[in-house]
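Chapter summary example.
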Amino acid sequence: MTGKTETRLREIRGRTRQYRKKYENRLIFCLTMCNLFLFAGIGVLFRRVQGPGTVAVADAYGTVLLRDGVGAYVVIGIVAFVAGVALTVICIRLKRRSYDKEG
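The structure predicted for these 103 residues follows.
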Protein backbone atom coordinates (compact mmCIF):
# COMPACT_ATOMS: atom_id res chain seq x y z
CA MET A 1 0.00 0.00 0.00
CA THR A 2 1.06 3.51 -0.64
CA GLY A 3 1.46 6.23 1.95
CA LYS A 4 -1.78 7.92 0.87
CA THR A 5 -3.76 4.72 1.28
CA GLU A 6 -2.41 4.10 4.76
CA THR A 7 -3.21 7.67 5.77
CA ARG A 8 -6.75 7.35 4.45
CA LEU A 9 -7.25 4.03 6.22
CA ARG A 10 -6.05 5.54 9.51
CA GLU A 11 -8.44 8.45 9.05
CA ILE A 12 -11.34 6.12 8.26
CA ARG A 13 -10.60 3.98 11.31
CA GLY A 14 -10.40 7.08 13.50
CA ARG A 15 -13.75 8.38 12.28
CA THR A 16 -15.27 4.95 12.70
CA ARG A 17 -14.07 4.88 16.32
CA GLN A 18 -15.55 8.34 16.90
CA TYR A 19 -18.94 7.36 15.45
CA ARG A 20 -18.97 4.11 17.41
CA LYS A 21 -18.11 5.94 20.63
CA LYS A 22 -20.86 8.49 19.97
CA TYR A 23 -23.37 5.66 19.33
CA GLU A 24 -22.34 3.78 22.48
CA ASN A 25 -22.60 6.95 24.58
CA ARG A 26 -26.09 7.60 23.21
CA LEU A 27 -27.08 4.01 23.96
CA ILE A 28 -25.72 4.18 27.51
CA PHE A 29 -27.60 7.44 28.07
CA CYS A 30 -30.86 5.87 26.82
CA LEU A 31 -30.36 2.82 29.05
CA THR A 32 -29.67 5.06 32.04
CA MET A 33 -32.86 7.03 31.41
CA CYS A 34 -34.85 3.79 31.10
CA ASN A 35 -33.45 2.62 34.44
CA LEU A 36 -34.38 5.91 36.10
CA PHE A 37 -37.95 5.67 34.75
CA LEU A 38 -38.19 2.07 35.95
CA PHE A 39 -36.99 3.02 39.43
CA ALA A 40 -39.47 5.90 39.54
CA GLY A 41 -42.27 3.57 38.47
CA ILE A 42 -41.32 0.99 41.07
CA GLY A 43 -41.28 3.73 43.70
CA VAL A 44 -44.78 4.84 42.70
CA LEU A 45 -46.00 1.23 42.86
CA PHE A 46 -44.49 0.78 46.32
CA ARG A 47 -46.23 3.90 47.59
CA ARG A 48 -49.56 2.68 46.25
CA VAL A 49 -49.09 -0.80 47.74
CA GLN A 50 -48.06 0.39 51.18
CA GLY A 51 -51.06 0.31 53.46
CA PRO A 52 -51.64 1.28 57.07
CA GLY A 53 -50.87 -2.23 58.34
CA THR A 54 -47.58 -2.61 56.48
CA VAL A 55 -45.49 -0.87 59.14
CA ALA A 56 -47.00 -3.00 61.90
CA VAL A 57 -45.69 -6.23 60.36
CA ALA A 58 -42.20 -5.04 59.44
CA ASP A 59 -40.56 -7.84 61.45
CA ALA A 60 -42.58 -10.56 59.73
CA TYR A 61 -42.29 -9.13 56.23
CA GLY A 62 -43.46 -12.34 54.56
CA THR A 63 -46.93 -11.83 56.00
CA VAL A 64 -47.30 -8.63 53.97
CA LEU A 65 -47.66 -10.81 50.89
CA LEU A 66 -50.73 -12.41 52.43
CA ARG A 67 -52.60 -9.11 52.23
CA ASP A 68 -54.48 -7.77 49.22
CA GLY A 69 -51.45 -6.17 47.50
CA VAL A 70 -49.82 -9.39 46.28
CA GLY A 71 -50.25 -8.55 42.59
CA ALA A 72 -48.16 -5.40 42.74
CA TYR A 73 -45.24 -7.20 44.39
CA VAL A 74 -45.32 -9.90 41.73
CA VAL A 75 -45.41 -7.30 38.95
CA ILE A 76 -42.51 -5.38 40.50
CA GLY A 77 -40.48 -8.57 40.81
CA ILE A 78 -41.13 -9.60 37.22
CA VAL A 79 -40.35 -6.13 35.86
CA ALA A 80 -37.10 -5.95 37.83
CA PHE A 81 -36.06 -9.40 36.62
CA VAL A 82 -36.86 -8.64 32.97
CA ALA A 83 -35.05 -5.30 33.15
CA GLY A 84 -31.97 -6.98 34.63
CA VAL A 85 -31.96 -9.70 31.97
CA ALA A 86 -32.44 -7.19 29.16
CA LEU A 87 -29.64 -4.95 30.42
CA THR A 88 -27.31 -7.94 30.80
CA VAL A 89 -28.03 -9.19 27.28
CA ILE A 90 -27.49 -5.73 25.79
CA CYS A 91 -24.19 -5.30 27.61
CA ILE A 92 -22.95 -8.72 26.53
CA ARG A 93 -23.88 -8.05 22.90
CA LEU A 94 -22.20 -4.63 22.93
CA LYS A 95 -19.03 -6.09 24.40
CA ARG A 96 -19.00 -8.97 21.93
CA ARG A 97 -19.60 -6.57 19.03
CA SER A 98 -16.72 -4.33 20.12
CA TYR A 99 -14.40 -7.35 20.34
CA ASP A 100 -15.49 -8.55 16.89
CA LYS A 101 -14.87 -5.16 15.29
CA GLU A 102 -11.46 -4.72 16.93
CA GLY A 103 -10.16 -8.16 16.03
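To summarize the output: Residues 54 and 67 are 9 Å apart (CA to CA).
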